Amino acid sequence: MKPLKVASESQWSIKLFGSLCCVWLISGVTVLMQTTASADENLQTVAVVAEHQQNQFASLLTEAGLSFSMPAGFHEIAIEDDYVLPYEKRLMSDDEGLEVRYAIRPLKRIEIDYEDPHNSAPHPNDLFEMLFRTISETLAGQTYVRSHIYPADQAREKYHAGWASAAVFDVSPDVSKKYHQGLLLAIHHNDKADAYLLFLTNDLQQQKEAIKAAEKSLVFTRFDKGINRPTL
Predict the structure, then answer these.
(1) 8-state DSSP, 226
(2) pLDDT for res 7
(3) Percent of the chain scored above 90 by pLDDT?
(4) Contact 145, 137 (CB under 8 A)
(5) The sheet that has 110-114: what strands, in order across it?
(6) Cα–Cα distance between 143 and 129 in angstroms, integer?
(7) What are the residues whose beta carbons fall under 8 Å from the beta carbon of 149, sequence distance 6 or more?
(8) In the prediction, which pLDDT does 131 show?
(9) pLDDT score, position 29
(10) Of the four listed, 81, 122, 140, 159, which is most buried by Cβ atoms within 10 Å?
């Protein structure tokens, strides 16, 4: 079997068009596998990829100042390519009624491509609301999205975050062909990271308890500072 090649680090690039829209361009982990390998070699390749993904997720947690705890009633399943919101971990509830995808974006890895000669490029600390809106609308296929921003004290208490928000929507078929309802939970901490938990199901109301069990599985390890808000 040919040597397995795995990219060592992902980088995220954001292109801004004025102040109204952004496109998230992501170069993620690339895995090259020999398709004609034997069954044993394929199993070995799968194991290597799984180990790399586990190590990558653990490294991202440390870099982003986050902690993960496995929620009860869930098990891990394989990651699949997703160009809409690439993610680093994927769980399934034991009854297969709910899928959870985890995406972690350390702020120091974000590169901003900003083409406005009259203004300076925004800091990654200040993009979380725009990114959340853009990502949720993209996941919904540009259809209606209902969102809610947590009060600052709740964001801090539940997630040790400076900001948190949740959105519910009908999921684009580009995201999932099995599930048609989605809930996106986003948490942000200045100088650390943006992190996203995408819940996929066919009945958000029926999966309410399972969502509650998993919503705090990814939190910042500690709260250090609030978000930047303009002074009036």
Answers:
(1) -
(2) 38
(3) 63
(4) yes
(5) 21-27, 11-17, 110-114
(6) 18
(7) 163, 164, 165
(8) 92
(9) 37
(10) 159
pLDDT tens readout for residues 63-121: 999 999 999 999 999 999 888 899 999 999 999 999 999 999 999 988 887 777 777 77
Return the sign of the alpha-carbon dihedral for residues 122, 124, 126, 131: positive
Helices (H), the chain: 39-64, 128-139, 152-159, 208-214
Q: Please, which residues bridge with residue 5 across strands?
A: 32
In this prediction, residue 149 carries a pLDDT of: 97
C-alpha 79/C-alpha 57 separation (Å) is: 12
Rounded distance between C-alpha atoms, residue 58 and residue 86, angstroms: 16
Q: What is the pTM of this model?
A: 0.82
Is residue 187 within 8 Å of residue 129, measured between CB atoms? no
User: What domains appear along the chain, each with residue ranges and CATH number?
Assistant: 5-220 (3.40.1000.10)
